[in-house]
Specification:
Blueprint: E1 4-8, H1 14-23, E2 27-31, H2 35-42, E3 47-48, H3 52-58, E4 61-64, H4 69-77, E5 90-93, H5 99-110, E6 115-118, E7 121-122, H6 124-130, E8 133-138, H7 141-151, E9 155-161, H8 166-195, H9 199-208, H10 214-224, H11 235-252, H12 257-273, H13 282-290
Parallel strand pairs: 1-2, 1-4, 2-3, 4-5, 5-6, 8-9
Antiparallel strand pairs: 7-8
Helix pairs in contact: 1-2, 1-6, 4-5, 8-10, 8-11, 8-12, 8-13, 9-10, 11-12
Length: about 300
């Protein structure tokens, strides 16, 4: 396939992924609603487009990394969206939209002779920067093999099947578990600290035992105990993903009672700390109510 790619949405996740493509020798045409997001890539040789539609007129394969289903739908299918371009034939959606929206977009694109590759990613900004993301891809097998050199740049590729939406379902299941781990670990850690335990020792014990999870192994040591709260993913996006997961579960007729409690926790995080706050900060509203902080003793 062509070494010239389009990339729309070069923010916290898209920016590092686009940068890795430049490192791998690809030529990029990029667009983002925020001009400042384009500058680091342009400085490295990427061509800045004036719209998503222009990207679709200059590259036959366009990758998109966008924050919400509504934005994904508009940027791909809108009046000046990627699909309005005269050259694009494949759109790789790295965003989290949910299976039903992905299927709707895939159907609309098919009518235009454009294929949609459902390929959300997980691993955060650190994974996007290092190239260690989990890439969850759904498309025809032969198309995956054509795209594999591109997707391999981002991390480990997992093939979910040919049907659009399979990647989205996998991503939402993954993010529900991540959201639940962060919320419940926050409650457990605040409880232990309130009782007088050292949070560093707590994490050592948890991570040597059956309670270990992604929050205890990574997020708390890196972002919570040092009081940095800089993991690079927002409360609002986590709430969106959990809410999407519940909607998908409801559509499938799956009871998700624990997931509903997780959704409520992230709703409170958005209300108490702001939707733009880092999602590792969810511990702070629990700390506030308990009157302690999860930090290393002086």
């Amino acid at each position: 396939m062509s070494k010239h790619l389009g990339f729309v949405g070069v923010g916290q996740m898209g920016g590092p992924m686009a940068g890795r493509l430049l490192d791998a020798g690809y030529t990029l045409t990029v667009f983002d609603a925020r001009a400042a997001a384009l500058q680091p890539l342009v400085a490295r040789g990427a061509q800045a487009a004036q719209s998503a539609g222009e990207v679709g007129s200059l590259a036959d394969t366009v990758l998109v990394s966008l924050p919400t289903p509504a934005i994904v739908r508009e940027v791909i299918l809108g009046a000046n969206g990627v699909a309005s371009g005269i050259k694009v034939r494949t759109i790789v959606d790295l965003s989290t939209t949910g299976a039903r929206v992905e299927q709707e977009i895939a159907q609309a694109l098919s009518a235009k002779g454009i294929s949609l590759v459902d390929s959300p990613v997980s691993g955060g900004v650190a994974g996007a920067t290092k190239g260690t993301l989990a890439v969850m891809t759904a498309c025809p097998q032969e198309q995956l093999e054509q795209l594999r050199p591109v997707l391999d740049v981002f991390g480990k590729v997992f093939y979910l099947g040919a049907k659009p939406g399979f990647g989205q379902t996998m991503k939402l299941c993954n993010n529900l578990l991540s959201a639940a781990a962060m919320a419940i670990t926050s409650e457990a850690m605040v409880m232990g600290v309130k009782a007088g335990l050292d949070p560093r020792v707590m994490l050592d014990v948890i991570n040597a035992g059956t309670g270990r999870n992604s929050a205890s192994q990574d997020k708390f040591p890196r972002a919570v105990v040092p009081r940095l709260f800089n993991f690079g993913f927002t409360n609002g996006l986590m709430y969106k993903d959990v809410k999407l997961c519940l909607e998908e579960g409801s559509a499938l007729g799956v009871p998700m009672w624990v997931a509903e409690a997780v959704r409520q926790s992230w709703y409170l995080a958005c209300q108490e700390l702001g939707a733009d706050g880092d999602f590792t900060g969810i511990v702070q509203y629990i700390e506030k109510w308990a009157g302690v902080e999860v930090k290393a003793p002086a």
